[in-house]
Structure formats: structure tokens, C-alpha cells
């Protein structure tokens, strides 16, 4: 079986991670991705310690393959879920929306491989120095909380700056994107949006339908003014946020309050007007519901085909 250094590092067959999407990435999705040969990841964002423990045990019942847990570092539960990850000896932890340094010693002591999302070369170098096993260089094409740089600009600069494996994320929707990531120097990819419409993904059907119907220009970001830009589909909710963001006198707290509970409304209730339908810019390329196994097989068959046929001078 073909392999590369990322596959060997985490014990997977295909060098692909499923993004740890808040409210979305549960045991059903994570186990399906792991059973299909990628790395499934449970999102701890919306869980406290007990809820995360329950999700981990569900996932263990559904797969014998390795899976990871993602910690959203702005979560009020970050401290307690970080402790659960070490206690449960989860093979891989990914982090997002902040600097994971304060948890790294504890995780490394418990043999947990730490793979942070980094939006910059500076953070990539810092976590590499502190013992990260790999980094996920995520460009602003992605859904949810986004950094400034694009995947095209960020990935090669991170690859030049660190010796550990680099996983590319943001704007990857099919095998062409996977091939491009490898051309930029990455040795793996992380996808979120494509897995939103996976058959094993348990989000509300309205969410899936909105992603399936989305065009290239149907996402927008809000929240940049207050330091936490978030990408989601354009709807009444995101337009309301955009209108309020630059109102004179609005405070960060007042703005944050407007968004509370909106992701949950999208994922659990399918509230098309009031929900926050986070997804990346490649939503316009997603037009079919497939199983995780079909998605992963298609991505890598297409990537290998594209790489084989790539010629610069004969187009
Ligand atoms: O974390 C994400 N994407 C997310 S988290 C999330 S949960 C949520 N967000 C808003 C409202 C409701 C729920 C939704 N999407 N991606 C990983 C990511 N991390 N993107 C960017 C970053 C990042 C940014 C700054 C990582 C580190 C960082 O460090 C700054 C520093 O302190 O050095």
C-alpha cells in the first residue's frame, strides 16, 4: 500500500484529515472518515469534559482506526477538554483559533501528537519548536474562523519555515486542489466543506441543501473588525452581522452577542434565516451527497490523475 510520512506519523492510509468542525464533527462523521482511511476528527468546541468523553467512547465503538479531537482554543471548555484528551490518550489533537502552547507539554507527556492549525509562519515556527508533530496551514478560503493569508501564499511559506510535515487546508474541494496542495509542498490535506454533505454527516438537511446549492460567490466573512473573522454563507443572519459590524459605537461584546447560538441553529434546527451556515469558498464545487469513503477515494484518484497529466509547456 502506498504511504507517505504523514500517513506513517498518524497511522492512516490516505493523507487526509477531516476538519474538526464545531457542532458538526461528531462520532458519526469522524468514525466514517477514519474507517475510510483518513483521519476523522471530533470537534470538542461545543462539549464540556463529560460530553467529549461520551463522544470519544461512541467513536471508539464505531472504529478501531485512529481518530483525533480538535480543540477550539476560544471555547470556554478548552481547559477541561484539553485534560480529557490527555487522560484518554487520544492519538492526535488538532487546535484552532489560537496558540496552543500552554497545553502542549501535558499532551506530549501523554503521547498525544499535537497538530495545530497555523495562520502564519510565526506560529508554525513556535509550535514546531515546542514539539508539534505537524502543522495545518489553513488559508482564509476555509469556512468558519479564518486567518488573513490565502492557502496559495501560506502553504509554501510554512513549508519553507518548518521541518515537520505540513497539511494544507482552505479552498480544497476536489482532486485538483489536493494535487495543488502537494505541489505547494504539503504532504497532506484537511477538508471540511466537502464533508458537510457526506452521508455520515448528521447536520440538518437544510444545511446540506444550502451547501449543495451554493455558488462560488455565496460566502462572506464578518467579524474582522473585532479580530475574529468568520466565513459563512450569505443569508439574513450574515447580512445582519455585516450591517452591525461597522455601526458607530458598537462594542466587541455587543457584536459577539449577535452571533451566539447561530451555528447551533444552522446545524441542529436548519434555521435558514437565523442560522450561521459556516462553509468554505469551495461550496460552489460541492454538488453531491456521497459517503466519506466515496469522497476520499474520488479525491485521491483525481489528484493522482491530475499529477500524472500535469505538463507546463503543452497546454
Ligand atoms: O478554528 C477554525 N475554524 C473555526 S472554529 C469555529 S467555532 C465558532 N467560531 C465562531 C463562532 C461560533 C463558533 C468555527 N470555525 N479554524 C482554524 C483556524 N485557526 N483558523 C485560523 C486559526 C488561528 C488564528 C489565530 C490559529 C491561531 C491563531 O493564533 C493567533 C495567536 O494567538 O497567535
Give a topology summary.
Layout: H1 5-10, E1 16-18, H2 27-35, E2 40-43, H3 49-62, E3 67-72, H4 78-87, E4 92-96, H5 101-109, E5 113-118, H6 121-129, E6 135-138, E7 144-145, H7 151-161, E8 166-169, H8 175-183, E9 188-191, H9 193-196, H10 205-213, E10 219-222, E11 230-233, H11 236-245, H12 252-259, H13 262-269, H14 292-309
Parallel strand pairs: 1-9, 2-3, 3-4, 4-5, 5-6, 6-8, 8-9
Antiparallel strand pairs: 7-11, 10-11
The protein binds ligand TUI.
Ligand TUI binds at residues 22, 45, 72, 96-99, 117, 119, 123, 138, 144-147, 230, 259, 263, 278.
Structure commentary:
The structure is a single chain. Helices cover 43% and strands 15% of the residues. The chain is built from 14 helices and 11 strands. It is globular. The mean pLDDT is 97. Bound molecules: ligand TUI.
Oligomer description:
single chain
Approximately what portion of the residues adopt beta-strand conformation?
Answer: 5-15%
| Strand order across the largest sheet | 1-9-8-6-5-4-3-2
Annotation field: number of helices: 14
**Each distinct ligand:** ligand TUI
What is the number of E strands? 11
Low-confidence stretches are none
CA gyration radius, whole angstroms: 18 Å
Structural class by helix and strand composition? alpha/beta
Q: State the share of residues found in helices, binned by percent.
A: 40-55%
Amino acid at each position: 500500500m502506498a504511504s507517505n510520512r504523514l500517513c506513517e506519523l498518524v497511522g492512516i492510509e490516505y493523507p487526509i484529515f477531516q476538519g474538526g468542525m464545531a457542532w458538526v464533527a461528531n462520532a458519526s462523521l469522524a468514525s466514517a472518515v477514519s474507517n475510510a482511511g483518513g483521519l476523522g476528527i471530533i470537534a470538542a468546541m461545543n462539549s464540556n469534559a463529560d460530553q467529549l468523553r461520551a463522544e470519544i467512547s461512541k467513536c471508539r465503538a464505531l472504529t478501531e482506526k485512529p481518530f483525533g479531537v480538535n480543540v477550539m482554543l476560544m471555547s470556554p471548555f478548552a481547559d477541561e477538554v484539553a485534560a480529557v484528551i490527555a487522560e484518554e490518550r487520544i492519538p492526535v489533537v488538532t487546535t484552532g483559533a489560537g496558540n496552543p502552547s500552554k497545553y502542549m507539554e501535558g499532551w506530549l507527556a501523554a503521547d498525544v501528537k499535537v497538530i495545530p492549525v497555523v495562520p502564519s509562519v510565526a506560529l508554525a515556527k513556535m509550535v514546531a519548536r515546542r514539539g508539534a508533530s505537524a502543522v495545518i496551514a489553513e488559508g482564509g478560503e476555509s469556512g468558519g474562523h479564518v486567518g488573513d493569508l490565502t492557502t496559495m501564499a501560506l502553504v509554501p511559506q510554512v513549508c519553507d519555515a518548518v521541518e515537520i510535515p505540513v497539511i494544507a487546508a482552505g479552498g480544497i474541494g476536489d482532486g485538483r486542489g489536493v494535487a495543488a496542495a502537494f505541489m505547494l509542498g504539503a504532504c497532506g490535506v484537511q477538508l471540511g466543506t466537502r464533508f458537510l454533505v457526506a452521508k455520515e454527516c448528521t447536520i440538518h438537511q437544510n444545511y446540506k441543501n444550502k451547501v449543495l446549492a451554493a455558488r462560488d460567490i455565496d460566502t462572506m466573512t464578518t467579524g474582522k473588525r473585532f479580530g475574529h473573522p468568520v466565513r459563512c454563507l450569505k443569508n439574513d443572519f450574515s447580512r445582519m452581522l455585516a450591517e452591525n459590524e461597522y455601526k458607530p459605537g458598537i462594542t466587541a461584546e455587543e457584536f459577539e452577542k449577535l452571533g451566539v447560538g447561530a451555528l447551533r441553529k444552522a446545524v441542529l434546527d436548519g434555521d435558514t434565516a437565523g442560522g450561521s451556515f459556516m462553509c468554505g469558498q469551495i461550496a460552489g464545487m460541492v454538488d453531491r451527497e456521497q459517503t466519506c469513503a466515496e469522497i476520499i477515494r474520488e479525491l485521491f484518484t483525481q489528484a493522482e490523475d491530475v499529477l500524472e497529466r500535469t505538463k507546463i509547456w503543452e497546454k
